[in-house]
Design goal:
The protein is mostly helical. Helices cover 84% and strands 0% of the residues. It has two domains: 2-90, Orthogonal Bundle (Diphtheria Toxin Repressor, domain 2), CATH 1.10.60; 108-178, Diphtheria Toxin Repressor, domain 2. The mean pLDDT is 82.
Length: 179
């Protein structure tokens, strides 16, 4: 009789352990929920055109637009949680993929902008190595024009004038990068 009791007890332990493996992990569910709230927060921070490009479901888009109008901190927090809830109810992987593409484009533009600023500053400081880098990167550039812009920017800097030529130099470098 005792061995039968042990066997039944072991069977119930096995069934409990099987149930534990099939039951969703509460901590993982919380992490997923927080992640989707953060995704929603990232969506709220986007420009209106970028939100339109995400092609969100109507209810979610309405919730995001509402959140962008809310000024109250506690109200915004509730709205962010609501957006996270909406994201849980739909397939959010597609939206996350599109969001990552938009964020990558922002990061790429920022890096390009900083590189152009650094080149402009070094060109004004008369760094010949930088000029060679710019020429190597953009062989179609007008060397005479860029040298004129550099000289004008250097003169402005010496005379403490408004940085008009410096802006023109940056604009020229930016146009080269876009072409």
């Amino acid at each position: 009789m005792t061995s039968n009791f042990k066997k039944n007890n072991m069977d119930s332990d096995d069934s409990e352990s099987k149930d534990e493996h099939h039951r969703p992990n509460k901590s993982q569910a919380k992490r997923d929920s927080h992640h989707l709230v953060n995704v929603g927060e990232s969506i709220i921070k986007l420009k209106a055109e970028e939100i339109q490009a995400l092609d969100l479901p109507e209810e979610l888009e309405h919730a995001v637009n509402t959140a962008r109008k809310i000024k109250s901190r506690s109200g915004l927090k509730r709205q962010r949680l609501y957006i996270g809830k909406l994201l849980r109810s739909i397939d959010s992987e597609h939206i996350e993929t599109q969001l990552k593409k938009i964020q990558h484009r922002h990061d790429t533009n920022t890096a390009r902008f900083k590189r152009l600023e650094m080149w402009r500053d070094k060109l004004i400081e008369n760094d010949k190595g930088t000029l060679n880098d710019v020429i190597a990167s953009y062989p179609e550039l007008d060397r005479q024009h860029i040298n004129q812009l550099i000289r004008a920017a250097q003169q402005e800097k010496k005379q403490d004038k408004a940085p008009t030529a410096t802006r023109k130099l940056f604009k020229y470098l930016s146009e080269l990068a876009e072409a």
